[in-house]
């Protein structure tokens, strides 16, 4: 059986608020759990196709909220990370995962070179090109914010961190957000936790932001904190305050215009 939300779509990327005029762009690489019918169910049970191994649940609504609040274009994936992880380079072993956490992915095992190349050309390349096309519309490097969510329990271990501010070699925005998270004592906020650059998770930042000196951060939000619309709205409001204050400290101009 095809996975949840399966259809015949093969589009890899959607740009929301394409004409956003703020100095920020938002990216959501793991926005979707869609697996087109031709891939079947990859040999997985339905509950796994709706779990964190297939997508970052809650991440897209938060990304859309930030896009609206910051008047920023949003680049979002249309297909499940199980087919191709758009936050990985094609050569990465986990770009087309044959296992995720403790689960084997039978439909991704023993792929031949042509099958792997097809995933790259139909998923990775359009997403990369769509993202770069949005970046090229800015007169100067935009602030890049990528939005992810993570599971509270991973490999049987409970994670107490609630919001991770992930950065690679450019720590400016992550550290400025930490400094401006005046109410973060109500949340457990950490730098490079539960993931960091050593885990290969900063591919989008490394590929699109760092080479042009764009201020950037990757947000990791524990998915039990953004399960419904009310929680997502509250998270967007909190993150927007941190982002606006941090960008102001970093001299981002023109000033961010926050819509409420």
UniProtKB/TrEMBL annotation:
It holds the Pfam family FGase. InterPro entries: N-FG_amidohydro, UCP029730. This is N-formylglutamate amidohydrolase. It comes from Sedimentitalea todarodis.
